[in-house]
Specification:
Blueprint (H helix, E strand, L loop, with lengths): L2 H4 L2 E6 L2 E6 L1 H7 L5 E2 L1 E2 L7 E11 L2 E10 L3 H12 L6 H8 L3 H10 L1 H4 L20 E5 L4 E7 L5 E9 L5 H19 L8 E4 L23 H15 L1 H6 L7 E5 L6 H12 L2 E6 L10 H15 L4 E6 L2 H4 L8 H23 L3 E7 L7 H4 L6 E4 L5 H19 L13 H7 L5 H22 L8 H12 L6
Parallel strand pairs: 2-10, 11-14, 11-15, 12-13, 13-14
Antiparallel strand pairs: 1-2, 3-5, 4-10, 5-6, 6-9, 7-8, 8-9
Helix pairs in contact: 4-5, 8-10, 11-13, 15-16, 15-17, 17-18
The structure holds adenosine-5'-triphosphate and magnesium ion.
Magnesium ion binds next to helix 10.
């Protein structure tokens, strides 16, 4: 995978520490929908125990928040108080650091002028009589990017919090970088000079709705019992990979695919496998998460997702999972929620219309359990050119799913001297007895048997026998529950 496909990486230094920021643009976009934890893989200098840094959205503003927890001792409390109080409002610390040529501190004072005088202004008002104007939380700022954070701490002085807000549409990776810098500045004040030297931190998003996910493990070959769908997806992948041929004939490849069918039939799996077949990044938007409790928030979220989609420079499959949630109310209800959803659906239509012209790198898949709820105009051809029904598997389909899953487990777990499945397996019988089940159910049947075996071994200490046909059938029966009396 190219570096670009992995996301933009920016590395910067702070007080001798190296901070790597990964794909901040995507992370910030994701933070419009969901709170995103950004800081990881870090070990902290004593007495700092833990530092968290998150970005989230509230009513039109992007909120940067961090929390620094320290060992509970009074020594720390004193330091933290010194940090935010200072002997004078500017703080001895700051002037000292400017002397030492610390750019951040200098920027702080130069850039914010008198406001920066309030930097490190604090809260411990009980101890030092201060004019009313200073009865505010302390402030630290990075004037270069215009980011100001308030600093507060809890009673014990073991928890320091930073918080900064920016209008959502103004936020850029530079602000994230600046906020991380301010957080590290406070850590440095607590733990002492040099305490960050040589450390490495990563700012990246953990698991978010539009995260590119490595799909390498999921392939169309692993899908059981949906031969026609798999064949069609392979054709779509070919069309995607050959834009020159499409252009020469003025042909347009499908830009949107709607998959519908009962839960657990493999829709999400198929989208991932398609991304893999195309060689595309996979970005999942959990549609319910677009919906924002604030008026206008949902519209902004969906617009932002498409704005980002226009910019993807690598082939990308965007999955709108549980798509019905944004369209199920179309045409119904005049309440605020209904109106917001209608607005989102309207924007979705407009955006889908020209997305592919704007960015040939993108293909959109939407999944739903309720196709009848989907407004026709949303899925009329041109927006979603391909509609696929993903049904529950029949006997042969289930047998094939068993076969593929078992084969996968064997190749993942069997080792010399360890046999996972007995020789007596009768896949056709498993297909028959599991009537009515989906791929997700079959996965659960296997999970239970695996767990039972592992537990058996854990209790007995000896090696358990391989999984037998009988045990698989019993697991199917158990999952199904007692059959209704005839
Ligand atoms: N046809 C199939 N072949 C192989 N595995 C399958 C199949 N269908 C489902 N599975 C297994 O079940 C799991 C769950 O399926 P998946 O999440 O794709 O279902 P879904 O159709 O998206 O369900 P939902 O509508 O509830 O979102 C998959 O990760 C996969 O392991
Ligand atoms: Mg799904």
């Amino acid at each position: 995978m190219s570096d670009q496909a992995r996301g933009q990486r920016v590395t910067f230094e702070y007080a001798g520490a190296t901070v790597e920021m990964v794909d901040a643009v995507t992370a910030l976009a994701a933070a419009r929908v969901n709170r995103v934890e950004m800081l990881r893989g870090a070990s902290w200098p004593e007495p700092v125990r833990r530092v968290e840094l998150s970005v989230s959205s509230e009513d039109g503003v992007q909120v940067f928040a961090s929390e620094i927890s320290t060992a509970a001792d009074r020594f720390t409390t004193a330091k933290v108080r010194a940090l935010v109080l200072g002997a004078d409002p500017i703080g001895v610390l700051l002037s000292k650091r400017i002397e030492q040529g610390d750019q951040l501190a200098a920027r702080l004072v130069d850039g914010v002028g008198n406001a920066a005088v309030a930097a490190y202004r604090k809260l411990g008002l009980d101890r030092v009589p201060q004019p009313a104007v200073q009865r505010e939380p302390a402030t630290v700022a990075d004037a270069a990017v215009g980011l100001q954070a308030t600093v507060t701490y809890d009673e014990n002085g073991t928890l320091v919090r930073l918080r900064a807000e920016m209008p959502r549409d103004d936020v850029s990776p530079a602000h994230l970088q600046a906020f991380a810098g301010l957080t590290l500045q406070v850590v440095l004040e607590i733990a002492g000079p040099e305490s960050l030297a040589g450390r490495r931190f990563t700012l990246s998003r953990e698991s978010l709705p539009v995260e590119p996910i490595t799909t390498s493990e999921v392939t169309l070959d692993q899908v059981g019992g949906l031969a026609n769908i798999v064949a069609e997806l392979r054709q779509i992948a070919v069309s995607f990979r050959h834009p020159e041929a499409m252009a020469r004939w003025g042909a347009r490849r499908p830009q949107g695919i709607l998959m519908y069918g009962p839960p657990g039939t493999g829709k999400t799996m198929l989208s991932r496998a398609l991304a893999n077949e195309i060689g595309a990044d996979f970005r999942e938007v959990r549609t319910p998460e677009i919906l924002d409790k604030w008026l206008g928030g949902s519209e902004r979220n969906i617009k932002q997702i498409f704005r980002d989609a226009r910019r993807y420079r690598v082939p990308t499959l965007i999955l709108f999972d549980e798509f019905d949630s944004i369209i199920s109310y179309v045409g119904s209800g005049g309440d605020a929620a209904g109106q917001a959803i209608n607005a989102v659906a309207g924007i979705f239509k407009q955006e889908m219309n020209d997305l592919i012209e704007a960015n040939p790198n993108v293909i959109v898949v939407a999944t739903t359990n309720f196709p009848h709820r989907v407004d026709d105009s949303l899925i009329r051809s041109g927006r979603f050119d391909v509609k696929m029904s993903v049904p529950k598997p029949d006997d042969a389909g289930r047998a094939e799913i068993f076969r593929k899953m078992i084969r996968g487990l064997i190749s993942a777990h069997e080792a010399p001297g360890f046999t996972m499945f007995a020789d007596d397996l009768d896949l056709a019988e498993l297909g028959r007895v599991s009537f009515g089940m989906t791929g997700a159910d079959i996965k659960e049947v296997l999970r239970r048997v695996q767990l039972a075996k592992a537990m058996q071994e854990a209790h007995s200490g000896g090696q358990a026998e391989p999984i037998s046909q009988e045990e698989l059938v019993a697991s199917v029966t158990e999952l199904r529950g007692p059959l209704p009396a005839a």
